[in-house]
Amino acid sequence: MSAPEQQRNAEKAVDNAANATARHRQLNAIWWAILLSAAFFSIALSIFSIFNLAVPLREHTGITIPLLALETQYFYAMMAFLLPLVFLLYPVWPGVGRMDRVPWYDMVLAALTFVICGYFNFSGEAIIDDGWEYDAPAHATYMTYALWLICLEAARRAGGLVIFLICALLSAYPVLAPWAPGFLAGPAEDWQTTASYHVFGTESLIGVPMTAFANLVVGFLVFGVALQYTGGGAFFLNLAFALLGKRRGGPAKVAIFSSGLMGSMSGSVITNVLTTGVMSIPAMKRVGFRSTYAGGVEACASTGGVVMPPIMGATAFVMAVFLEIPYADIAIAAVIPSLLYFFALFMQIDAYSARFGLSGLADRELPSIGAVLRDGWYFVFVFVMLIVMLVYMQQEAQAPYYATLTLLIINQCSKNHRWGWRQLLEFMVGTGKLFTELAAILAGIGLIIGSLSLTGKVGTIAYELVDIAGDNTFLLLLMGAVTSFILGIGMTVTAAYLFLAITLGPGLERAGLDALAVHMFMLYWAMISFITPPVAIGAYAASSIAQSNPLKTGLEAMRLGTIIYFVPFFFVLNPALIGQGSAAEVFTVSCAAIVGIVMIAAGLQGYLIGAGTLGDNSAIHWLLRLALIAAGLVLALPGGELVGFTHLQLNLTALAVGVPALALTWLVNRGREPARLAPTG
Questions:
Q1: Which of 75-84, 91-100, 383-392, 415-424 has the lowest mean pLDDT?
Q2: pTM of this structure
Q3: Does 354 reside within a domain?
């Protein structure tokens, strides 16, 4: 790829990233200074809290930081710095009003939010010692009502109307419980008790979501933003082109590699599509991929990046706090499912490329792997450093800060990537925007958890769901998948996961399923809406770059991502696929899944590597494809008690269907040359 072309694509990536955040106001210098200050103090508070620096600071200098005396004070302080920014950055409605100034009412809301959260921070000891959760002073009670409404409005602006409606209705559930339908009905709590519980209790506003955000997510967000602003995205993209660009279907394979890594950094499907897609999609089209296929590949790769270790987006950190297990355990559990997903994408692309004779890019268009590594070796180094600290040193809260510091020091020693003041300010602004959006959404979701905790309905819901399913585990899982998908349409992945974790999760666990597998199942299904029509917003974002039909691109993405609809069922029915089991069991089910995926990919794309095209478009062609898909699914399905069949029984069944299909495919293709042109459209 020539230097001018790389420069043009880089500029397009920047433009697309800017368009992705166009709903933010364009603030003047004063407001930017406030945003920068809030981001700086949020990071500083996180560092002081996580590294427990307040104690040595007091011992050596005599300076005390009253903001951090208690963990609850730390949470109130983070809210005081971040929630007001929602009203500065986001207008009341997207596209309504001027985007170059902050109206007076948003200034008032921002100031009121800061004052209330600041007051609760300084009153942290009194809140606990005097039991404000049960008997708060009158003025504090009025403040709880105000903060409740403020958090709902902040969630609406940052997360959308659907999140607002769900949070608003369920946060008021303790008061409205007598009018709830069926088993959801219960005794009512008064408004004062509910508001006090939401704000002062440790199970609501400052519960699991805010705990995960303040203690884990902040550090990894800083690391992810630092990677992007130091050129990590460009490095991984160039590395992918150097490694895979000249292989058959090379640009599509590049998209898998680069988008997977980029998505792991950003945690955002849309941002990932709009930044890596401007380089990968045109390259795919240039070597012969259909525009809808190219868009589908990018959408699937970007979606998979959200569950790609070592950084899996905010949801995984929330999961760690919710399950009370180390984040490293979740990252390790996600390795096999994410590799199976990307392997399925790779095999489909390879089969498609072989079927239609699609080559890779010419050597002159590709960067040298040596030059790429010489320029950005330290990105690999900090990733390895992060993994070592997470897995072996078990320093999950501190690890991202050490990795970020190392990255920035090395970056400043590089002549090509060294930051100036402008780059530092851009980094802080990007960090502040990311903090603000996530903090607002998690605050709203915390209100839901608080309501169910206050009413004690979590256990009741779990029992009723199991009763509705009639102790049928498969039906309960299907109910969970459909619910996850529906919620994923209108909510962020994190919000959808948290809602299901407190309602559906206990029911699935009560049915005898592994807790970690259950929560991974909900995470996967919550993100499937990004590639599934009629929503498929990841695919629609890719179609805007590919200049293709959005619905056809979504359908193509759905076909390419087929395995993601089955993998969650596989690992929840047999947790060996998430590393929960003996080494022999993990090895057996993983190998079977790999072979099964090869057969599924062949059936979906109409080409079996080593045998050729699965006939023409006659009846035998479709019969062979269906046989391979069925055999592959049976082979990939892990045996076990919940499935009702052993590994051997499933493997023999798959062989009985698959071997004749393989043999017939080989016979049909003897002496036949594959087609050399991809279909148009």
A1: 91-100
A2: 0.80
A3: no
